[in-house]
Specification:
- The protein is α+β, with helices and mostly antiparallel strands.
- The protein is built from six helices and five strands.
- A three-stranded antiparallel β-sheet has the order 1-2-3, with helices on both faces.
- β2 and β3 form a beta hairpin.
């Protein structure tokens, strides 16, 4: 089946137009977010599931002012991101991937604050519509996430 744009219509069809990528686990979407120390989301970015985390990290982090530390998981471990953060005046607290040739240490006490982000993402999953991705349209799903983020500011 051809997933190009249909005749006489201006919208694109197909999985990529809806922010869905093919991964090992099937069709998937990733939500990249930056939150503060209270777990309130500040930046939200939706990408297809097969997009690497480090590719959109600079774009996502650049939307907020520099902070003293940036806590992220192993998916964001890249030399480009680390050097960009250091130039920005931010200390990266990112554990090294297991296949990294030169192991880079991180502050484990500061990394324990990563649970703040995990709790924020779990609050999104409390919304059944977000957790199961009922909305197949990219814009509608992002609007649902924005409403969930708006509500979580008061919780």
């Amino acid at each position: 089946m051809h997933q190009g744009s249909p005749h006489r219509r201006r919208r694109k069809r197909g999985a990529l137009a809806h922010g869905i990528g093919i991964t090992k686990g099937g069709r998937n979407t990733k939500l990249h977010a930056v939150c503060d120390e209270k777990g309130r989301p500040h930046v939200l970015l939706l990408t297809p599931g097969n997009t690497h985390d480090a590719k959109v990290a600079i774009q996502t982090i650049n939307a907020v002012p520099p902070s003293r530390h940036l806590v992220a998981d192993k998916g964001y471990d890249s030399n480009v991101l680390r050097s960009w953060l250091i130039e920005r005046g931010t200390t990266p607290v990112i554990p090294a991937r297991s296949n990294r040739k030169v192991h880079i240490e991180h502050d484990r006490q500061i990394y324990h604050q990563h649970n703040v982000f995990e709790r924020m993402s779990c609050r999104f999953k409390d919304w059944r519509r977000v957790a199961t991705r009922f909305d197949r349209n990219f814009k509608t799903f992002m609007a649902t996430i924005a409403i969930a983020a708006f509500v979580t500011w008061w919780l």
